[in-house]
Each structure stands twice: as C-alpha cells, then as structure tokens.
Design a protein that fits this description.
Elements: H1 12-33, H2 39-43, E1 46-51, E2 54-59, H3 70-81, E3 89-94, E4 98-100, H4 114-133, E5 138-142, E6 145-147, H5 149-156, E7 159-163, E8 167-169, H6 180-187, H7 192-201, E9 205-206, H8 207-213, E10 218-220, H9 222-237, H10 241-254, H11 259-273, H12 277-287, H13 308-313
Parallel strand pairs: 2-3, 3-5, 4-6, 5-7, 6-8, 7-10
Antiparallel strand pairs: 1-2, 8-9
Helix pairs in contact: 1-4, 3-4, 4-5, 5-6, 6-7, 10-11
C-alpha cells in the first residue's frame, strides 16, 4: 500500500491499480479473521440475499443482540467479500430490536487472553475498513439500538437510513472498556465534541440527534425505512458501476488530505474520469437528451491519433 503515492492518481493506470489493490487486500486480511468453527453455525448468523445488483446482509442473531463476536465478524467478512459481477450496492440490516450491541463481552474476559482479544479487535477493524475500501456503496438500514462496535458499524457505512425509534451509543466506559476503536469511526462521522460526549458518558442519542450530527443520512417512521433504503439502492443501480467505484475511492482518499492537496488530487481524478468510456457516454447522453448506456467497466476511450506535425516535433 505504501508504494502507491498521491502522485499515482495523476495517471489513469495508477488509479485503477489503487482500485485493484483494495480488492486484493481481502486475500491477506481474511487470514486474521479466520477461526475454527462449525460452518452451519456460522452461516446462521446472517441471512444474505442478492437481487438486481443489491445484496442484503441481515444480522441474524437476535438472541445475542446481534453481537459482533469473532464468528459474526468472520461471517460478515465472507458476506461482504463474496464476488459477484452484478453487485452494485450492499445493504446491512438486522433481525430483532437491536441492530448490534457490539462486541460479545464474554469473549473479552481475562481467561481468553490478550492474544485472543487482539484478534477480535483486529478482525473488527478489517471488517469496518472493508466497508469503506470496497468499491460498491454500503447502506446501513437501522432499526432499534446500535451500540459500541454496532454504532461503529453504522458509522463505517457510506449511507445510513434509520428508524425514528433507533438509538446510538458507545457505552463501553460504563463497563470499564472505553470504546476506543468505535471512536475512530464515530469521530469521523460526527463533530468531535459530540463524539467525546458519547464516548465519555455512554449515553445514547436519538435517531433525530444522530441525523442532526451526521451519523445517519435519513430518519423515517419504521414502516418507511426499507422502502427508502431500496429507493436509494435502486437509484445507485441506475448509474455506472465504474464511475461510482472511482468516486467512492477518490472520496475516501481526498478526505485524508488538507484542502489544497485534496483539490489537486480530485482535479486529476476528474480528468481521469473523462477518459472512461462511461464518463464520455454520460456526457454524450446528456447532450443528446437520451438515457445513457453504461458499460460498467474501467475501459477508456481510444487515444486521439498523433498528427504528422506532432511526430516531427517529437
């Protein structure tokens, strides 16, 4: 990863290399999440469906408040990483009154030992990072309570649609385990003082406050949440897959930079975008007042022929 610099984005090939590298990281990171378990038990922790380019991953362990145990994290990793050429959007939701209560505290007792604890936190970090590193948008569809690493899961998604009954909290401080890793995602989603209050007190905030502070995108009555989530997902599916992949990658890259560097980076990326067949197709369809026909590929337009005069100048 370190070998790719910001200047790499000045060429189209460098940017596509960045996109490909993000996908290849899965092969090495999955090893950290792996554990020995019964496959049937693992499969039951989530329910996954995929239709018309939309994959829905439903946390399905309501008896344990959809806790992000090591088994649940491994299952999520597999569900997120599953290859599909038609995939355009992922929706994360949950069965039961709790979206996710965060880590399974029974896995964090002294008898498990430091090495096991480090494995749990590293696995969680890889799953949260994957949500932003993968090139398709991820939408959280939230009902009920999302706490600790469950709140981190929502904050790590690109978009979040929540029920007006949803609540969000980072209550680890109340059980002697400060929500340091959830604070990474939380602190990048809400203003610092709001994040600190949530982290220091553990007090939950309402869906409306979460909307006000930027933790979620929309808040709706419970019976309208799924409809709105699907509306967003279907709208994304109408766009070019390659353009969205380029856009998501560039957004997260520029957010790491100061303003001037961010503009320099995105200037090059927009020029690169225009080299895509889909980039030119979108502009031409707008000019011609027609619906675009996307290739959904990273194929680029042919380079213009070099004139004889230019050959002489060279």
């Amino acid at each position: 990863m370190a070998a790719i610099t910001r200047s790499s984005f000045s060429s189209l090939g460098g940017l596509f290399c960045k996109l490909s590298l993000r996908q290849s990281l899965k092969n090495t990171r999955i090893a950290v999440c792996q554990y020995t378990s019964d496959s049937k038990e693992t499969e039951s922790l989530t329910k996954v469906t995929e239709e018309n380019g939309i994959r829905t991953i439903c946390l399905n362990n309501p008896k344990k408040r959809n806790a992000l145990s090591l088994k649940m994290l491994e299952t999520l990793w597999q569900d997120l990483s599953k290859k599909s050429k038609d995939l355009r959007v992922i929706i994360l939701t949950a069965n039961g009154p709790v979206f996710s209560s965060g880590h399974d505290l029974k896995e964090l007792t002294a008898k498990e030992g430091r090495h096991y604890h480090e494995k749990v936190f590293a696995s969680c970090t890889y799953v949260m990072s994957l949500l932003q590193e993968m090139t398709v948008p991820v939408i959280a569809e939230v009902y009920g309570l999302a706490t600790a690493a469950g709140c981190q899961l929502v904050a790590s998604c690109d978009i979040a649609v929540a029920s007006d009954k949803a609540q969000f909290a980072t209550p680890g401080v109340n059980v002697g385990l400060f929500c340091s890793t959830p604070g990474v995602a939380l602190g990048r989603s809400v203003p610092r003082k709001i994040a600190m209050e949530m982290l220091f007190t553990g007090k939950p905030i309402s869906a409306q406050d979460a909307l006000l502070h930027g933790l979620v995108s929309k808040v709706l009555p419970e019976d309208q949440v799924h409809e709105e989530t699907m509306k967003i997902a279907k709208k994304i599916c109408e766009t070019s897959k390659s353009v969205v992949a380029l856009g998501k990658t560039s957004f997260h890259e520029q957010m790491k930079l100061e303003r001037r560097e961010a503009y320099r980076l995105t200037e090059a990326i927009m020029a690169n975008n225009l080299q895509l067949i889909d980039g030119q197709e979108g502009i031409q369809s707008f000019i011609e007042k027609r619906t675009p026909t996307w290739t959904h590929t990273m194929k680029t337009i042919p380079a213009p022929p070099v004139s004889k005069k230019e050959d002489l100048d060279d």
